[in-house]
């Protein structure tokens, strides 16, 4: 089992995070923006401010790095490729979106079930697409081979 290539985790993770952030903007910042605004107003809150949006994007980058780290960690068991990236994306989605959204939006009732369902479904697409994009950049570290003239061999005895 090889070591995780941290440089490639960071590179792939940043790409995964950027893809997820862009798709998140399309889903929550454009498509669901009116719903978010209405439901925040119903809670007596203002619409999202730029500082909050920056934090959402930073958290998206951290999530992207996490998904590629998970991809690198499970790759020896599941093999390299898109299906493994989807599995890694599902793990991050369950822990980072599904459970918190069900907990705070549905169970506590902070937001409507419809908004919770839409944003959670959108997050699935965002995270899995990010995982697929970032995983394409992940490569295991190249193992250094020892030149054949430096390899010690022991004679065979029969």
Can you describe this structure?
- With 158 residues, this protein is mainly alpha-helical.
- The protein has one domain (6-140).
- The protein is built from 5 helices and no strands.
- The longest helix has 29 residues, at 50-78.
- The radius of gyration is 21 Å and the shape is elongated.
Relevant terms:
mainly alpha; 158 residues
Summarize the amount of helix as a percent range.
Answer: over 70%
Q: What is the mean pLDDT?
A: 91
Oligomerization state: single chain
In this structure, how is the largest beta sheet organized?
Answer: none
Q: First CA to last CA: what distance?
A: 33 Å
Order of helices and strands: HHHHH
Shape by Cα distribution:
elongated
Low-confidence stretches: none
Global Rg: 21 Å
Domain tally: 1
Number of strands: 0
Helix count equals 5
- Helix/strand-derived category reads mainly alpha
- Per DSSP, what share of the residues sits in E-state strands of 2 or more residues? under 5%
